Amino acid sequence: MSPTPNKASRRILVADDDPVMRRVVSRVLSDAGYRVVLANDGREAYRILQVDADFRAAIFDMRMPHLHGIDIIRYMRTEKRLMRIPVVMMTADQNLTVQGESFAAGATAFLLKPFTTQNVQTILRLLGNGEGALA
To answer: DSSP for 96-113?
Structure first.
C-alpha cells in the first residue's frame, strides 16, 4: 500500500546529478523551512517516488543519467498519487523548445540555470498560490 499524501508535509524532492547544484538548491529550500530529500540522478528520484508520494513539490534537473527530469514528470503524471505534486524543471539549456517540452510533459514551473536564491523563492511563492500550495 502506498503512503497517503500528507498536506502538512514540508518535503521537497530534488534530483540533480551535480552535487554542487544539489547543495545549492537544498540550502535555499532548507532556509525557506522545507525538508529536502535528495536524489543523485533520475533513477534514484524515480525509485523514491515509487514508494513515497508525500512531497509538497519536486525539482528536477532536465538532463540526468539513467532518466531525464522530463521522463520522471511523464511518469508522475500517469500515477494518480503523484499527479498533485508540482514539478519545477531546471536546466542550463537556453533553448525555448526545452521549456515547451517540459510544460507539455506536465512541469509546473521552469528554472533556468544559473539561478539566484530569489529565483527559487519566487517559484516557491508562485507554486504556493496554486493547487499544490507550498505555503
So the answer is: HHHHHHHHHHT-SEEEES
For 60-110, how does the pLDDT look when each residue is reduced to its tens digit (9 = 90+)?
Answer: 999 999 999 999 999 999 999 999 999 999 998 888 888 899 999 999 999
Q: How many residues does the chain have?
A: 135
Q: What whole-number distance in Å separates Cα of residue 69 and Cα of residue 29? A: 19
CATH number of 11-127: 3.40.50.2300
Q: Is the pTM of this model over 0.90?
A: no
Beta strands of 2-125 (E only): which ranges?
A: 11-15, 35-39, 57-61, 87-91, 109-112
